[in-house]
Amino acid sequence: MGWATKKSRVWELRQMTLTFLSILMFVPFLHIHPFVMMSQASKSKVRIWYVTAWVLLAVEVALFGSLIYFFGSFSRGMLLTIAGSSVSYIVGNGMLLNQAKPFLQRLELGEVRELKWITSPNGQKRQELKAPMLDTPQLFIERLLHWRKQINNKVLHQDIDKIIRLFHLMEKKDIREAEKFLVRHSTVVNVLIQYDELENSNLRNAVTDKSKEKLVHVVRQAAVAIEQEVTEQFRMGMLEISAETDVYLQTLKSRNLLKD
């Protein structure tokens, strides 16, 4: 498991290649951090990063203009320009490192479902994740991924991964059934929230251990039930296509286009 996601460390390092390249570009006036931030904003669909990237780019352009103006002179203006370029390098790359974790988590979410633009990855994040109502499929997946990271139980990790995969299959097959799925299985998120609270309480006694075992059992049963539900959806789909193909073949035979 990686540093910020459930993906491998190699995967995370690969996604951070441009950030590391930006850090290596420490020569004054040859900084690429505004473009790296724009790229990350585009991939993760975070508006605030886009705005910040344009501000950083404007600063770099202004510093480059100042370099041209003071070029050839060893003046106070040139020293301030070089100092400003150094500060821009430190601030820009510091911001890239600071947003690394949410950037990786957004990319991880993007592998499960299509991302939508958000203002900020942290704005009222925990409040939304703990809200009792599940508004959208994206928020449902975000909550499952969030609580998966908070919880240290590997058995729960496996069941959560299974539920996410099954939900993704159902969503691709029938979006209306996926919306009904959210209503039927919203309790799973509440169970994970409760388990996380027990885990963080650091209480080790018969009551808390039994409670956690029960919550793990609930999620396991939910994963089994969801698998049966998705399997049934596919079975019904196969029955429908089977009936359709039978009618199609019979029509071809009745028109003497197909021999028995």
Task: Give structural notes.
By secondary structure, the protein is an all-alpha fold. The chain has 12 helices and no strands. Helix 3 runs antiparallel to helix 4, helix 3 runs parallel beside helix 6 and helix 4 packs antiparallel against helix 5.
Secondary-structure element order, N to C: HHHHHHHHHHHH
Q: What is the average per-residue confidence, as pLDDT, rounded to a whole number?
A: 84
Query: DSSP helix count?
Result: 12
Question: What's the story with the biggest beta sheet?
Answer: none
What key attributes describe this structure?
mainly alpha
Compact description:
The longest helix has 49 residues, at 206-254. By secondary structure, this protein is mostly helical. 77% of the residues lie in helices and 0% in strands.
Topology:
Layout: H1 9-15, H2 17-24, H3 33-44, H4 47-70, H5 76-98, H6 100-112, H7 125-130, H8 137-150, H9 154-173, H10 175-184, H11 187-200, H12 206-254
